[in-house]
Amino acid sequence: ERRVVTGVQPTGALHVGNYFGAVRRCVRLQDEGEDLTVFIADLHSLTTKQDPQLLQENILDLTAYLLASGLDPDRSILFAQSAVPRHAELCWLLACLATHARLAHLPQYKEKSAETKEVPLGLLLYPVLQAADVLVYQGTHVPVGRDQLQHLQVAAQLVKTFHHRYGRMFPTPQPLLPDDGSDRILSLRDPNKKMSKSDPDVKSRILLSDTDDVITKKIRKAVTDFTPQVTYEPTSRPGVSNLVALHCLAADKTPEEVVEEADGFTTAQYKKEVSRALCETIAPIRSRALQYRARPALLRDVLRHGAARARKRADDVYERAAAAVGIAPPA
Ligand code: ATP
Ligand code: MG
């Protein structure tokens, strides 16, 4: 039996990397009839400084964009992570099995902790909470971007350690990586980095909330290189290839098709094609999201309904894990 589980942080508007790399893939899995759980990772977002009021807004925004992207709260389970305390409770059990050395060596921790002097402990625990997020539903598959692969290895290690100490309990979650290049969309300003919500340069990413005008401007300013032809060579020409990849994802084409159509175009001319394809994908999502966002009571209801369903599943798994560990049984 497959159970697909994934989360998105409410750290600001979704970018096309999040959309193609995570959200759209989830929606497709849902539409294929998979058992899908998607949570808004508000606990994770606290690992970086958040303004409380803005965070609340961001949670509703993200809910609106997930619904607008096709997530169906009746077929899939959609809720805010903090509304299901079992995530944090299982995190504690797993944290007692994780080692500081292993967590401190993870690249994402190193990158993010290098940016601040006072490193919050939550940042170190981030992958452990992620493991709990999946294991608390006995998740089997996790559709993520390539940036999360190492964290899934941590989850696999924790499952092994748990089983060794307490007996079998969890399936080992497997990554679901796409074969369409959507697992790592790059920054438009620095094609050596992935596109990120937290990148201080807003021109580095295309948001689902961007208007056609803004999309066109950002693509026009995207960093390429000094070769005018359009080719798809991700290693030697990451900038142009990233545009080709985005074009393919938006227009549902292969790199070969796109490159052939762009024959004779300079990269500057080609950028107009990319913008057009992206606008066509994004505009309908943006307008649906605005409609949802105008109905906050409906959004809150959706999250409440999802949380109730999630809680039922999580209680069951957590109670068995707690009993295996030998801590107080539920009253
Ligand atoms: P932050 O910079 O705040 O960590 P983020 O852009 O990495 O933001 P997350 O909320 O951490 O966004 O990730 C949500 C999902 O999107 C995850 O499954 C992640 O693997 C995926 N994802 C993030 N960035 C990219 C990207 N550039 N290309 C493809 N998938 C991505
Ligand atoms: Mg991230």
Automatic annotation (TrEMBL):
Transmembrane segments: none annotated. The keyword Repressor does not apply. It catalyses: tRNA(Trp) + L-tryptophan + ATP = L-tryptophyl-tRNA(Trp) + AMP + diphosphate + H(+). It is an enzyme of class 6 (ligase). It is found in: Mitochondrion. Keywords: Aminoacyl-tRNA synthetase, ATP-binding, Ligase, Nucleotide-binding, Protein biosynthesis. Its EC number is 6.1.1.2. Belongs to the class-I aminoacyl-tRNA synthetase family. This is tryptophan--tRNA ligase. It comes from Loxostege sticticalis (Beet webworm moth). The chain holds residues 49 to 379 of 392 of the full protein.
